[in-house]
Write a structure and sequence with these properties.
The chain is mostly helical. The chain has one domain. Helix content is 87%, strand content 0%. It contains seven helices and no strands. Helix 2 packs across helix 5 and helix 4 packs across helix 6. The longest helix has 39 residues. The chain is elongated.
Length: 199
């Protein structure tokens, strides 16, 4: 997450700084970076990274339990697989993905700051002042609301494909691939819907 958002902030600043300076809008660069990362790039990129890392891990673990009949053993002991396996992972993802999003937002804006100050020649005050002047706290909290939904999607799809994995080692691989691909697609669709309602 740190590497992804750091270089996203760097690239975003490299793309817009020159154009903004050319039109005399350099006093808004910091705010544009902070708003873009806080509202969109932070939660979406963290969601994609977590879908690849966490979603795959959840599916591999749950599908292995299914293939080795551990889930059947839970049912025999009158333990609900949903309460025992799905709910804790869902809660964990809904808490940790927003925390990672805050971390990623800070790293992304820091990457933009370093690039703007040391490469594009923007003064540190101009960059930070534009954030305080134009960006609002809702730009970040709106992104965190998205991150909660993305965490939920990752955990639910990971457990769904894990519980419904075909038998054998090949089934574990297929279920893991399905989780990652479907999670990323759903995150992008959900991002569009949530952006429409939140912003």
């Amino acid at each position: 997450v740190g590497l992804t958002l750091l270089f996203t902030g760097v690239v975003l600043t490299l793309q817009i700084a020159h154009e903004f300076i050319r039109y005399g809008a350099q006093s808004t660069i910091g705010a544009v970076i902070a708003i873009g990362i806080g509202r969109e790039l932070g939660p979406v990129l963290v969601g994609v990274v977590c879908a690849g890392r966490v979603g795959a891990a959840i599916t591999a673990e749950v599908s292995t339990m299914k293939v080795t009949e551990q889930i059947d053993a839970l049912r025999v002991m009158a333990v609900s697989p949903v309460n025992y396996l799905i709910v804790p992972r869902m809660l964990a993802c809904m808490i940790v993905v927003p925390v990672l999003t805050v971390f990623g937002d800070v790293i992304g804006v820091l990457g933009g700051y370093i690039t703007a100050v040391h490469y594009s020649g923007i003064s540190p005050y101009t960059f930070t002042h534009s954030i305080t002047q134009f960006a609002e706290i809702y730009d970040m909290t709106g992104g965190l609301i998205k991150a909660i939904f993305f965490g939920n999607v990752i955990a639910v799809l990971g457990c769904h494909y894990g519980l419904n994995a075909p038998s054998g080692a090949e089934g574990v691989g297929k279920a893991t691939m399905q989780t990652v691909v479907t999670s990323i697609i759903v995150i992008f669709i959900l991002n569009a819907v949530l952006t429409f309602f939140l912003f």
